[in-house]
Amino acid sequence: MLHQEIRAGEAQVEDGGSGRHQSGAPKRPRLEDVAARVGLSTASVSLVLRGVPGPSERTRQRVLKAAADLGYQADRTASTLASRRSRLLGVMIDIRSPFHAELVEHLHTAAEEVGYDLVLSTLTRTRDERTAVDTLLAFRSEALILLGPTAPADALAVLDNKAPVIVVGRRIADTALDVVRTADDDGVRQTIDHLAGLGHREIVYVDGGKGVIATDRRRGYRTAMRRHGLGDHIRVLAGDHTEAAGERAARHLLDGGRLPTAVVAYNDQCAIGVLAALARAGVAVPGEVSVAGYDDDTLSRLSCFNLTTVSQSAREQARHAVTAAVERLDQDRAEPREVVLTPRLVVRGTTAGHG
Amino acid sequence: MLHQEIRAGEAQVEDGGSGRHQSGAPKRPRLEDVAARVGLSTASVSLVLRGVPGPSERTRQRVLKAAADLGYQADRTASTLASRRSRLLGVMIDIRSPFHAELVEHLHTAAEEVGYDLVLSTLTRTRDERTAVDTLLAFRSEALILLGPTAPADALAVLDNKAPVIVVGRRIADTALDVVRTADDDGVRQTIDHLAGLGHREIVYVDGGKGVIATDRRRGYRTAMRRHGLGDHIRVLAGDHTEAAGERAARHLLDGGRLPTAVVAYNDQCAIGVLAALARAGVAVPGEVSVAGYDDDTLSRLSCFNLTTVSQSAREQARHAVTAAVERLDQDRAEPREVVLTPRLVVRGTTAGHG
DNA sequence: ACCAGGACTTAAAGCGCTTTAAATTGTCCT
DNA sequence: AGGACAATTTAAAGCGCTTTAAGTCCTGGT
User: Fold this and answer.
1) Best mutation site among A95, A117, A150, A298 for testing chain B: the one with the most B CBs within 10 Å?
2) pLDDT at A74 over 60
3) Fewest C-beta atoms under 10 Å: which of A94, A238, A304, B121?
């Protein structure tokens, strides 16, 4: 982990200052210090440290050693300024979303592979998208990867003039933006196929409210139901993305007398609300009623839920987002591209045969 | 949200280039552009934009307008380089932790109040603490706020030579580092007090494994039990921070014949495992057995769990962390400081009277 | 009129690096 | 030995801002 840092600690001695707060913080070594140590110009040192071909092997070795001895670490701000490139991809996230967490993880590895770094800026209750994006821009991000932005399409289009924008996880109608997302309707279709295959016919859908995603998923439900000849059983209950909505919907069903044999919810949170309400009413899942969610949320994996759900292939989306950014930045692709991935149904324990 | 960006869009016209990818990206306006527009020097513009007193009101207004017209936004990298200050606090997080998410939220507001910005660097499966911290340093963070670091104390101490380190959420024995944390033993003590007050005597504790935090909580349990004269009932079951561990522990209790009247778990994840196992065995909670966790995790708030737990006052910890950093940076405090906050018991629905 | 002093402005020198053109060194022929 | 050419190395000019010392202009006072 941090152990290697000790090398840098030794270097402090050279600086004369032992304690940080004694005679001011010991200045971090600069390129010049490394250069002086090996008796070369800063230009050569810079070349070596960046792995640019040119310097002789002997020079290379000496510089590397000197840099290591001093615990030298390039100053990003200066490099960025001088090279006119930050090699930074700005990523806007909602730090509370487990799914975003997963995306970030993969974005990191994908970016690293192509020599870019990430700078994260999160939304919070008091930090809106504009602020978050401005921060990314202030850091000179070369491209903006926005996870689930809610800003209107035209605002995003304007933003795109400052730096290529890659929208992840949200459908955007006819703009020149790059978009990476999964086919939400297809995810629900797979769920319905799965349930229908198990013999279910009365499959209720708990809606996710307004928003493109909710719309797509709802459409997926309707279309799939019809395709299975279950058009007459289509039944959409109002809901949203919360657990509370799921409970409400389930209670509604319970109060209604006859229960459907399966409930598909807009997302996992909502599905869990359904599960909770059913459990409280003593309805066996998946014995009497099957339940499915969407998102493959961390929640759904908890053994106490073990929810059948739809996974959005975070890894693939992350890779495509980074690729899109790199194509814009290094291969001057000009035409926008939309990558629509197919989600994957994850069958767990809340769905079972019926009939 | 992003709507205001449109102003910047208009400015593009001046640049001659309409499309981003036509004749190269339209360069973002520089200080010089703003200065030229109002016929002043860049020095004056800089002064105005930073709110430094000096420029006349007339100048101030004109500069502000010009900057707005151009959609000017200062380049952080250049400012940092020139001023030798980044006014950046580096924050190391585990992006998958809901608790860290909460801390970050409050860190943002606390930092903003004192004129600092945050730069986040997360741990992932393939990104260790060293990498995360190096990134923060490369951005020239002036101080490092590390959320739950696992690096050994001496490594952290060395790091502290590069920039003041503030450790959050972890106890560190005698170092010169600033630490902000909550009293873990006290949190468990409060839980035990609560349960004992409800008449419980047989209170089992499911352990959290090794690590300072687990140690503190376990100690809190033991001490509190003794204080209530329940020393004979002390019973610690092996476990860790996972749901699986909770289930295992609960099954062990179920197999053991007589159940305790209350189970206190190392954390919420673990507590939820306990809940799941008990539910599966048909044991009523809190009817027959009361259960409590620790962390006030998002999970614990789900209505289907509604778990009694201990909250770590994220807001307070965040504020103290930022304050500590600012004291180091702007008020040259040299003596290390440890802030130990008192956690707060959050009584929900899994604990009830007994006896 | 003339000058001190206040109110503004600005020229210019960096910050720590990258990059390009030019200089230096070394090598190999003839 | 002299020169061409390749291999290295480096001087120097920035990158876009901040900052400080040094102006420039007025205002009044005398």
Assistant:
1) A95
2) yes
3) A238
